[in-house]
Design a protein that fits this description.
This protein has 400 residues and is an alpha+beta fold. It folds into 4 domains: 76 residues, Orthogonal Bundle (Multidrug-efflux Transporter Regulator, Chain: A, Domain 2); 114 residues, no CATH class; 40 residues, no CATH class; 157 residues, 2-Layer Sandwich (Alpha-Beta Plaits), CATH 3.30.70.1230. The chain has 16 helices and 13 strands. β6 and β7 form a beta hairpin. The chain is globular and about 85 Å long.
């Protein structure tokens, strides 16, 4: 692109009409020099068009710019566009031998906007789309492809959604405390932090994925080695160990929200998440998902689940948290799309609801499969649990 653009070139590159460009000049949003415009004006026109699409008039933007309360510098990045290829989604689908309807479902599963058949595909999307015929050619059915798309999409969406919140609440806040107004603080935060960080967010995601993949891929490879050794008659595969599910909740969290407000409740949830990660790491467990005032744990060893639960209920008050209560159960579970399902999980959740503040309750199926090591299991009684067909005998875990 040349350094300076004519009105016609600016209109063509920004997707606006000549009349729209002239209107922005009249409003003072664009300030041509000798009848020509800068390259950054392309993004500025696009930004104003995007704002108008949300109901913010160009006149209002012009007044805010003139008063100094608004700058478009940080918005101009929104005017940048990833290049489009010369191929439509329909033509790419035909080339790959994949139905366009399948591509639509994949995008929706990723959490992205549903594409149109005649829409030109972004260059960066072509790299992703080429994976589909490879998976289908290997015999992977559409349901499984959509499943992995949902896991990837949800995980990436959560990170992407949180980053602007974090930037505003943590990075920009320091500049606002210096006395800068909202827009000026944002501009300064981008200039002094965001620009210097660059694409480190994407790099961080790649690094974390590689680090986590090392652990889980190594475990998967080991399973194949054990299968091969057993098939060769060299070594019998060790029996699969029974795993455990645990649900922990904070007592009185709803009352805390009512009495102290949402911000206090949010700080409590963040403090709980920090404690949960520490406890899981020390006892070889995984925090499957946070549940606001609670957490769903998974443990390969049921004894680790008990010890972790006891540490959690003991540590919560010392962290300034409301008392915690935990339910634990062991047995077979179904793992799908990053979560665990089945009766074992359901019973653990129901047992957690029985436990009182500072208590860790255990289901009978765990008691049958674990040796007491650093704890004792005391019978509490037999209970009818909601949604569970037969009564379950429950025990309380206490320190030895």
């Amino acid at each position: 692109m040349p350094d300076r653009l004519t009105e016609a070139e600016l209109a063509q590159r920004s997707g606006a009409s000549g009349e729209q460009v002239r209107t922005l000049v009249d409003l003072g949003v664009l300030q041509p020099s000798n009848g020509t415009f800068s390259r950054s004006d392309v993004m500025r026109v696009r930004v104003v068009a995007s704002l108008e699409a949300t109901g913010i008039e160009a006149e209002a933007v012009a007044r805010a710019l003139a008063s100094g309360h608004l700058s478009l510098g940080y918005l101009e990045s929104a005017g940048r566009r990833h290049p489009r290829s010369d191929r439509t989604f329909a033509s790419v689908a035909e080339e790959m031998g994949v139905p366009f309807a399948t591509i639509e479902r994949v995008y929706v599963s990723f959490g992205l906007v549903r594409p149109e058949a005649d829409e030109r595909v972004r260059e960066e999307d072509l790299e992703m789309l080429r994976i589909l015929p490879l998976l289908f050619g290997a015999g992977v059915d559409e349901g499984d492809v959509l499943g992995i798309a949902r896991v990837w999409g949800d995980s990436a969406r959560r990170v992407a959604q949180y980053l602007p919140h974090y930037f505003h609440a943590s990075v920009e806040a320091g500049f606002r405390r210096r006395g800068l107004n909202d827009n000026a603080a944002y501009e300064a935060a981008i200039r002094e932090v965001g620009v210097r960080i660059g694409r480190s967010g994407e790099d961080l995601l790649g690094w974390l994925f590689r680090r986590h993949s090392e652990v889980f891929m190594t475990e998967h490879q080991l399973e194949h080695v054990e299968t091969a050794l057993e098939a060769a008659g060299v070594r019998r595969r060790p029996p699969r160990r029974v795993e455990a599910a645990a649900f922990a909740d904070l007592s009185g969290y709803t009352r805390l929200t009512e009495e102290s407000g949402d911000e206090a409740a949010a700080r409590t949830a963040i403090a709980l998440a920090a404690l949960v990660n520490e406890v899981a790491e020390r006892h070889r467990g995984t925090a499957v998902k946070m549940l606001g005032d609670g957490v769903h744990f998974h443990f390969r060893d049921p004894a680790d689940a008990v010890r972790a639960s006891l540490e959690l209920v003991e540590s919560a008050p010392a962290r300034g948290l409301p008392p915690a209560h935990v339910g634990i159960n062991a047995g077979p579970m179904l793992y799908e799309e990053g979560d665990y399902f089945g009766r074992t999980v359901n019973v653990a959740a129901r047992i957690a609801a029985l436990a009182g503040a500072g208590q860790a309750y255990v289901g009978e199926s765990l008691v049958e499969r674990v040796a007491e090591d650093g704890f004792r299991l005391l019978e509490v009684g037999e209970f009818e649990l909601k949604g569970i067909a037969t009564p379950v005998r429950v025990y309380e875990a206490v320190r030895s």
